[in-house]
Design brief:
This protein has five helices and no strands. By secondary structure, it is mainly alpha-helical.
Protein backbone atom coordinates (compact mmCIF):
# COMPACT_ATOMS: atom_id res chain seq x y z
CA UNK A 1 0.00 0.00 0.00
CA UNK A 2 1.42 3.40 -0.93
CA UNK A 3 2.15 6.07 1.65
CA UNK A 4 -0.57 8.27 0.14
CA UNK A 5 -3.13 5.49 0.47
CA UNK A 6 -2.07 4.82 4.07
CA UNK A 7 -2.31 8.52 4.91
CA UNK A 8 -5.75 8.75 3.30
CA UNK A 9 -6.95 5.70 5.23
CA UNK A 10 -5.61 7.12 8.50
CA UNK A 11 -7.32 10.45 7.81
CA UNK A 12 -10.66 8.73 7.20
CA UNK A 13 -10.23 6.67 10.38
CA UNK A 14 -9.29 9.70 12.48
CA UNK A 15 -12.23 11.73 11.14
CA UNK A 16 -14.63 8.88 11.76
CA UNK A 17 -13.33 8.27 15.28
CA UNK A 18 -13.63 11.96 16.06
CA UNK A 19 -17.28 11.73 15.01
CA UNK A 20 -17.76 8.91 17.49
CA UNK A 21 -18.04 5.96 15.14
CA UNK A 22 -15.69 3.37 13.76
CA UNK A 23 -15.53 2.06 10.19
CA UNK A 24 -15.25 -1.59 9.25
CA UNK A 25 -12.92 -2.89 6.57
CA UNK A 26 -15.30 -5.69 5.62
CA UNK A 27 -17.30 -5.03 2.45
CA UNK A 28 -21.01 -4.38 2.92
CA UNK A 29 -23.48 -6.88 1.59
CA UNK A 30 -26.46 -4.91 0.29
CA UNK A 31 -25.59 -1.33 1.23
CA UNK A 32 -22.67 0.89 0.44
CA UNK A 33 -20.03 1.50 3.07
CA UNK A 34 -20.60 5.25 2.72
CA UNK A 35 -24.27 4.90 3.65
CA UNK A 36 -23.41 2.76 6.70
CA UNK A 37 -20.85 5.28 7.90
CA UNK A 38 -23.26 8.16 7.20
CA UNK A 39 -25.96 6.51 9.31
CA UNK A 40 -23.51 6.01 12.18
CA UNK A 41 -22.41 9.65 11.92
CA UNK A 42 -26.05 10.76 12.06
CA UNK A 43 -26.45 8.78 15.30
CA UNK A 44 -23.31 10.44 16.69
CA UNK A 45 -24.78 13.82 15.78
CA UNK A 46 -27.97 13.03 17.72
CA UNK A 47 -25.82 12.04 20.69
CA UNK A 48 -23.65 15.13 20.46
CA UNK A 49 -26.74 17.36 20.38
CA UNK A 50 -28.04 15.66 23.54
CA UNK A 51 -31.04 14.08 21.83
CA UNK A 52 -30.04 10.52 22.76
CA UNK A 53 -27.74 9.09 25.43
CA UNK A 54 -24.23 7.82 24.78
CA UNK A 55 -25.36 4.27 25.47
CA UNK A 56 -28.28 4.54 23.06
CA UNK A 57 -25.98 5.97 20.40
CA UNK A 58 -23.43 3.18 20.86
CA UNK A 59 -26.16 0.54 20.67
CA UNK A 60 -27.62 2.09 17.52
CA UNK A 61 -24.21 2.34 15.86
CA UNK A 62 -23.50 -1.28 16.79
CA UNK A 63 -26.83 -2.36 15.29
CA UNK A 64 -26.08 -0.48 12.07
CA UNK A 65 -22.63 -2.08 11.87
CA UNK A 66 -23.88 -5.58 12.77
CA UNK A 67 -26.69 -5.44 10.20
CA UNK A 68 -24.38 -4.32 7.39
CA UNK A 69 -21.28 -6.43 8.03
CA UNK A 70 -20.17 -9.81 9.32
CA UNK A 71 -18.30 -8.72 12.44
CA UNK A 72 -15.17 -10.46 13.67
CA UNK A 73 -14.73 -11.54 17.29
CA UNK A 74 -12.43 -8.54 17.80
CA UNK A 75 -15.05 -6.17 16.41
CA UNK A 76 -17.70 -7.68 18.69
CA UNK A 77 -15.38 -7.16 21.67
CA UNK A 78 -14.79 -3.58 20.57
CA UNK A 79 -18.52 -2.85 20.42
CA UNK A 80 -19.12 -4.41 23.84
CA UNK A 81 -16.39 -2.19 25.30
CA UNK A 82 -17.77 0.88 23.50
CA UNK A 83 -21.23 0.31 24.95
CA UNK A 84 -19.79 -0.17 28.44
CA UNK A 85 -17.81 3.07 28.13
CA UNK A 86 -20.91 4.88 26.86
CA UNK A 87 -22.78 3.78 29.97
CA UNK A 88 -20.03 5.34 32.09
CA UNK A 89 -20.48 8.67 30.30
CA UNK A 90 -24.22 8.56 30.89
CA UNK A 91 -23.56 7.95 34.60
CA UNK A 92 -21.07 10.83 34.56
CA UNK A 93 -18.26 8.53 35.67
CA UNK A 94 -16.11 9.53 32.68
CA UNK A 95 -16.17 12.55 30.38
CA UNK A 96 -17.09 12.44 26.68
CA UNK A 97 -13.42 13.13 25.88
CA UNK A 98 -12.35 10.17 28.02
CA UNK A 99 -15.00 8.06 26.24
CA UNK A 100 -13.52 8.98 22.85
CA UNK A 101 -10.01 8.17 24.08
CA UNK A 102 -11.08 4.79 25.47
CA UNK A 103 -12.95 3.95 22.26
CA UNK A 104 -9.84 4.72 20.21
CA UNK A 105 -7.73 2.50 22.47
CA UNK A 106 -10.32 -0.30 22.30
CA UNK A 107 -10.35 -0.05 18.51
CA UNK A 108 -6.57 -0.38 18.40
CA UNK A 109 -6.66 -3.26 20.87
CA UNK A 110 -9.54 -5.31 19.48
CA UNK A 111 -9.88 -4.47 15.80
CA UNK A 112 -6.54 -3.38 14.37
CA UNK A 113 -4.57 -6.54 15.33
CA UNK A 114 -6.86 -8.55 13.04
CA UNK A 115 -6.25 -6.23 10.12
CA UNK A 116 -2.60 -7.11 9.52
Amino acid sequence: MSRTAVRAALLVLATTLAAGCVPSRQPPTTVTQASVEQRKMEVASLRDRGLISYEEAARRQFAIQRNAYALSDGEMSFWRASIEYAMLVDRRQITPDEYRRRVQVAYQEYVEPGRG
